[in-house]
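Hey all, quick one. A colleague (J.T.) asked me to put the uridine-5'-diphosphate-xylopyranose job into the tracker so the inputs and the structure tokens live in one place instead of scattered across chat threads. No bug as far as I know, just bookkeeping. Sequence used:
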Amino acid sequence: MVKICCIGAGYVGGPTMAVIALKCPEIEVAVVDISVSRITAWNSDTLPIYEPGLDEVVKKCRGKNLFFSSDVEKHVSEADIVFVSVNTPTKTQGLGAGKAADLTYWESAARMIADVSKSNKIVVEKSTVPVKTAEAIEKILTHNSKGIDFQILSNPEFLAEGTAIQDLFNPDRVLIGGRETPEGQKAIAALRDVYAHWVPVDRIICSNLWSAELSKLAANAFLAQRISSVNAMSALCEATGADVSQVSHAVGKDTRIGPKFLNASVGFGGSCFQKDILNLVYICECNGLPEVANYWKQVIKINDYQKTRFVNRIVSSMFNTVSGKKIAILGFAFKKDTGDTRETPAIDVCKGLLGDKALLSIYDPQVNEEQIQRDLAMKKFDWDHPVHLQPMSPTSIKQVNVVWDAYAATKDAHGVCILTEWDEFKTLDYQRIYDNMRKPAFIFDGRNVVDEAKLRAIGFIVYSIGKPLDQWLKDMPAVA
Ligand code: UDX
Ligand code: ADP
């Protein structure tokens, strides 16, 4: 029986291994993590991550051929294939600070694999890593191998949160990179056989190691670039009276461009986009390509500009001050259908408003108070360390109140900001919300989910990203 072990029971490792277990009943899959509380949660009725469809998959396989354990060494030593899906934070100190990936967790995982292995293993890079990580890992493993053969593969994950199970069931492609030696090709074939249980073979792409690693960074950079492109257009639309959704629709009808990923927003978030682009920038700089590095940097700059622009709109339209005013924040996750808040634009928007002394009342259907307080107290990049190594939030921020209901959040508020596109925000009783707010009542829609005309008819002053501006906003222009 083939045994698979995955180190790191996070957003990538958990769902990916659950789907492998479901689709390959004859393979035993163990997911291990140094975080005992995370493993306990995976073994409980309340999984540590929210992902539509995940519960059912886990329930079907857990205890049969899917196991969650904190006995990392035992499962690694028994496995034929070891996936590594640990944190790869951005370095905050030293060489490459603010850009390069910190490979501390990867390196310690690799050293542990070398220490405990007694049989040959295929080691698969699953978490996004900078190009050439495989080479570094290979060096650690082979220098400590005690005669054991380690084959390193890169098998980047392309799943998006909120649709992870669907993406895993029906991937656009599976990419496997490996060495171009007979042993490397054999390892690629072994992993291809796992995916071939449910993925059509023409969707399984094989390449060399570096191409696979770089493809992951490139794919995320291209996706993020589309969002920054449409967000850049949204600023121009507001300045000129065009409607960004009409522009996106018209542009996306060109089959060469396509309609997906053209929604203007308050900015992209998530654990991958910014980190991967920063990595790409660092690699370009290290390879003497400053022009290419600057090109990709601009994608992040526009994303930051979009968040700043949004905050400035709020403050300027509310008579240039939000000090002491209650502002309701609807949605804190970086997108709908996930409880994940990593790099969510809500953090920067909230921090911007707090900087102007606003009182925030935050509601997100999937994010709890502890997480929100921790996010707002944390420094940039601290989020991407295992939870037990993250700095504790010193004291909760007093200007922030987290509630479990959109109506409680908006009661007596001066303004409402929609920062995540949760479906429920489309169908709220906005008349009721308006009646319970201070006047003039403002709505700042950072996700273009509300029907502006209806809200204006109720009496709201509405700002929607990239849409023609209310006279009120035109009279109170924001300085970015
Ligand atoms: C992304 C990639 O899509 C996935 O392939 C990769 O494996 C990991 O990184 P994820 O971060 O989970 O996935 O979410 P994604 O759906 O890509 O959204 C990223 C951010 O972009 C979100 O904040 C989302 O709201 C925003 N977004 C997306 C927009 O602002 N506009 C869009 O049109 C699409
Ligand atoms: P991703 O989104 O890439 O899945 P997460 O942060 O959700 O990232 O998950 C990474 C997981 O890896 C965390 O649960 C963390 O505790 C775990 N981890 C980090 N280092 C190690 C290690 N050396 N051994 C086992 N687990 C580890």
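Adding what we noticed when we looked at it: The chain has a mean pLDDT of 94. Residues 157-161, 220, 223, 227, 261-263, 265, 268-270, 272-273, 334-335 surround uridine-5'-diphosphate-xylopyranose (ligand 1) (CB under 6 Å).
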